[in-house]
Amino acid sequence: MGRGTSKPPIIGRDDQQQELEAMLLSSAGRLAVIYVVGDSGVGKTILVNSVCSKPSVREHFKERIGVKVGKDAGISNILSLMSKELKKENNESDNENPRSKIQRRLGEECYLIIIDGRQMSIADWNAVIHALPKNERGSRVVLITKIKPQFLDHPMNDVHEIKLTCLNQTDCRKLFHMRLHGKEEDEQNQTYLPIYYQRVYDITGGSPLAVILLAGLMHNKEYPHEWDRVLKYLESAKEKRLNRILSLSFDDLHHELKLCFLYFTAFPVSYKVYQNVLVNLWVSEGFVVPRHGKTVQQLGQLYLRQLTTRGLVTEASADGDYDIRHFFLHDSVYLFARSEAHEANFMELHDGDYFPSPDRARRLTLHNSMDRYAALDNKMPKLRSIFAIFEEIPASTAEESVSSPSCFPTCCSCEQHRSPKISRFDLTKLLKRSKFLRVIMIEGLNIGTELPEAIGGMVHLRYLSTRCRSLRRIHPSIGNLKNLQTIDVRQSLVHELPCSFWKITSLRHVFGSELIVPRWTRELKQLNTLKSVRALQDWDGSMLRRMVNLKLLDVTIQEKLKEEKARKLSDNLNNLNNLTTLILKGVDLPISSIFTAPSLQFLKTIELTGTILLTTPSPEIDKMTTSPSDFQLPNLSKLSLSKTCLQQGFIGKLGKLPLLSNLTLKDVSCD
């Protein structure tokens, strides 16, 4: 069999794509609301993402926000999600009220907001519309939902509707064929397929989700015996055939792939699950181990591709300057995965309706925003992983009334939509009661100002993520975690890690928000990621010599370096032979030689913010100003330059690099 595609192609939706694009780009100035409606699995999200990712649409709107809203999210969480999607501006406070931030940032702009809100209540939807600025800039709001909500037409808004149904038999055949073989295959050469097309259509009913899943399943089945057996089994079911397809698809996975798939149930439906985070978690759990000459990162990415090829996992459209990939499960697939995870005692969910047994839980995820800490009051001796992922609630929002009485006086329950009370979570209690934790992932909770001393006793811990604004310090006992692989303190107020931390030789990934670079570290041969750190005065990058396998480096150089230190930093950067991504910000960046360094063969992405010094006498710089053939970045595909003050001739030579496909110039990047 041929290879399937990882992303669902858009089949049979030409008219709807044109209609949606026309609505978005219409010259009408008033705020317009566009409902994209249809049954589960007909491809609403794929259609919207496909149209909204077009360059014509992206360039039309100054601000773009896309959020997925879960059940009973409440207006505070929805606005917080929307606010977080706005790129942070200089000197912008993290504690600004989300509603105020949205009004301030969008008030005079042409904006596009996409809400995947098939589970949103009428009250929440009304509150969102009420919170948006009503300008005359041609702004648009797209709501993805099963049924158009009733009694929501605001007199100040234009309202449109696009309805999707299942595919007809011809389009069903095209989609099945493309998912099975890929575009490069000639359909005329597949003589065995036509006899199955009618059966595929009868089984799936033309539902794109069912077609994609069935193609992903049949892709790995032997023709014709296994095909006939699978189709006959599915035809025997009179209803709930999608669940049968899902069950067969899941059973067809090897053991490690099943675990990786079920791991998606750790995250709320609204959470963006990024590739690097997911793979790092799989590695920490031991689901991915080196084999067949591949590293754990390569194997983890391979597993993710296999899940997307089978249609079990969907890759979201990338947005922004970097091709950041994040993934999600379709709602129907997510519900199936939750059921399987619970039955296998793989992942326990506390969402208000169900309280897991403390003695049974091995992995616990908290989705109950109204009672965030209840499940953690018990001793859980078998607990291996804890996930508590919530939207951070700024203090300015905690006591705010979340709805406007004049907007919808009769359809909002105060109990359902009130903001959760901000209280402190006793992390020490959890650590002392669950000594075998391997993964801690906490976001949006008040855990106090310091990660407690008890963290040093969690000797099995491999993954630690505490993205909480209350956190300011990490206790030095963290140096006892000899198995720690990943730490993530982004979105916290932690700006420096203790010296003992930099002695952990098992470290692979360090994520922070401009963490102060240490003066000294132990040999960190396994470290792949250092993002992001802040270099103090006279930093020469000597610590980088002890990080020989570094692949991603993100550094801000706060002060101008002395000439000797600058030259040493340039040399130390050039010796990072495995580097694939380099992000540097500063006043004067003495790193012009990276463009000619023969050692940086694997660099794919470079982002430079600040003046690049080209005046230091050296053979490398002389070469750069004479011949583009001397550039030594054969794999560079993305380059972003901001405030670099480079000569136009130099920029032109960069454009001749063999694989450079994305060159971004902004804020006076060249003379």
Automatic annotation (TrEMBL):
Keywords: Plant defense, Repeat. The keyword Repeat applies. GO terms for molecular function: ADP binding. GO terms for biological process: defense response to bacterium; innate immune response-activating signaling pathway; plant-type hypersensitive response. Residues 428-667 form the Disease resistance R13L4/SHOC-2-like LRR domain. Gene3D superfamilies: Helical domain of apoptotic protease-activating factors (1.10.8.430), P-loop containing nucleotide triphosphate hydrolases (3.40.50.300), Ribonuclease Inhibitor (3.80.10.10), Winged helix-like DNA-binding domain superfamily/Winged helix DNA-binding domain (1.10.10.10). It comes from Oryza sativa subsp. indica. It comes from the Eukaryota. Residues 267-333 form the Disease resistance protein winged helix domain. Residues 18-178 form the NB-ARC domain. InterPro entries: Apaf_helical, Disease_R_plants, LRR_dom_sf, LRR_R13L4/SHOC2-like, NB-ARC, P-loop_NTPase, WH-like_DNA-bd_sf, WHD_DRP. This is Uncharacterized protein. The keyword Chloroplast does not apply.
